[in-house]
Structure formats: C-alpha cells, structure tokens
Amino acid sequence: MSIILGIESSCDDTSAAIIKDGFLLSNAIANQDVHKAYGGVVPELASRAHQQNIIPVVDHAIKEANISKDDIDGIAFTRGPGLLGSLIVGTSFAKGFSLAKNIPLIEVNHLQGHILVHFIKLLAEKNKKPTFPFLCLLVSGGHSQIVIVKDYFDMEIIGQTIDDAAGEAFDKCAKILGLPYPGGPLIDKLAQTGNENAFKFTKPRIKNLDYSFSGLKTAFLYFIRDNLKENPDFITENNADLAASIQKTIIEVLFDKLKKAIVQTGIKQIAVSGGVSANSQLRKDLISNAKINNWDIFMPNKEFSTDNAAMIAITGYFKYLKKDFVGQDITPLARLHL
Fold this sequence. Notes:
Helices cover 42% and strands 18% of the residues. The protein is of the alpha/beta class and 338 residues long. It has 2 domains: 3-125 and 304-321, ATPase, nucleotide binding domain (Nucleotidyltransferase, domain 5, 2-Layer Sandwich); 134-302, ATPase, nucleotide binding domain (Nucleotidyltransferase, domain 5, 2-Layer Sandwich), CATH 3.30.420. It has a 5-stranded mixed sheet, with helices on both faces. It has a 5-stranded mixed sheet with strand order 8-7-6-9-10, with helices on both faces. The chain is globular. The protein starts with a strand and ends in a 17-residue tail after the last helix.
C-alpha cells in the first residue's frame, strides 16, 4: 500500500491531493480571486496567497481522505514550469514535510502531471485508461502541445506552439471583448448562444505540427477595432457571435494539426488535457471527430483539466513505485521542459 500527498502551486491555485494505490481519496483546491481586479495573475500576490492557503489546503485534503499525516508514504510537488514565487511555496512546504516525516520527496513536471491525469482511479467508477502509445493534445494557458506518450515517463513532443498558447488566445480575446479574467470559460459560456459562422478569421499557416496563436489574437484585435469605429456598440450587439466565431477558429486550428499527427503516427488513441480541455465545444468536437474517424478518446473530468494536485499525486505515485526520489537540495524551475 502506498499513500502519496501531492502539492500543486505552479500558478494561482493552491491544491493538495491524496492518492492511495492509484485511487484518489481527496483533491482540495483554493482559488485566488484577488487577480480578477488586475485582468491576469499577479505573481507577487499569487505567492503570498499560496503562503496563506497551503497549510489549510493540505490539512483539508488529509482530513477528507480520512487518513493521518503519519500514514503518508511520500510527498510529490510541482517543480515546474510555472511562476517561480508560487513554485517556491509548494517546494518549500514539500521539503519541510518530507524532512519532518522522514518520507521520500518526489519532484513532478507540471506538464507530465497534466498528461498522467488520465491514470487517476476514482472509487466506484469503471476507470477506463489509455494504453501506450497514445497521443495527447495538451492545451492550457501556457502550453499547446501534441505529445506521443510511449510510457508513463517516456513522452515525445511532436508539435507545439511557437509563440502563444491556445488558452492565452482565449483569455486575450476575451479581454478584447471586455470580459473579466479568466476569460476562457466566459468565451465558452457566451459561445453557446452565438453563431459560430457569423465571422471568419484567418487561421495561421505554420509548417509541420506546430501551432501559432499570436497572429490570430492580433487579427481579432484589429477586427474589433475597425468595427468599433463604424459601430461603437459592435461588441455589445455581437458578443455571443464573436465568442462563438473565435472559439471555433481556435479549436479548428488545434484539431487540424491533431488530425495530421494521427495520420503521421497511425495512433488513434487520443487524449486531451490541460485547462482548455474543459472547453465544452472542444469536447463536443472531439466526440464527433472520434465517431467519424474511429478514434478511441479520453477526456479528464473537468475538475482535473485545470491545475490540481490530483495529477501531481498520481505522477508522484508512479515515481514512488520506481523509487525516483530527490534530495533536499532540489530547487523549483520556472522553465521546465516535458
């Protein structure tokens, strides 16, 4: 029996989770509303909030799992990538807990966590899991990647953004429309009542399987600016159609490259992960494409799409089985490749 405590603090969510033999017992998350007033995450405020939240969140996760802190066999934490100040809080807590309880310390790559979230087992559920190899479309606020997952810790990036990520494109386009942060979920909500074919936006043409979203953001900005000159109420009168149209374009860009990757690799087991995988239209399009093309698809519960400690704990669990531990000299890294 192995019980792992996972700590996630890479950005603005403080989270702690307990995994027992691959099964999730608890997953506690404290969000930070302070950033809404600034239209984005303020690193200094994020790290301060993590300091306030981490002990109560860990305490809640342990109590919800109905275990004692003495039952924990190892502690896993997000080493990176992420905001350095936020990562330091989680890393420092994990190092202190490991030292105090004399248990192994396990560093986790945040991106690997997003991918391995598909292996979390939930009590009283069928827990269908992908088999190796499979393709994972990892789409979040900071990353957009197509990854061949050959084993738990053998992953190959075959396509990625050369500039901005899909999640950032959603948030920036939402900001242009005057929507509060975080804007991605609001675009999703607005789009549900809009006409996705109302406006057309040119999709970037990037070689191979790589992505680019900076040009699309700029084109959207200029489109809105030009139309506002003619009609000051253009956004108000068309906000749902604008949201639906830009959402359709971003998702089409993601799927165009994903389809090419499937053809090139011959792999038809497709997983999605990361914050953007919670987008309702992306999920609908994945299901419809799977039916047409005979894909076997895997989508995480929405609570596991955004940053959470459950994905860190399950990754730590697999590392614990391998005895892949680190020492007290470990330091967090703002930039950390998959």
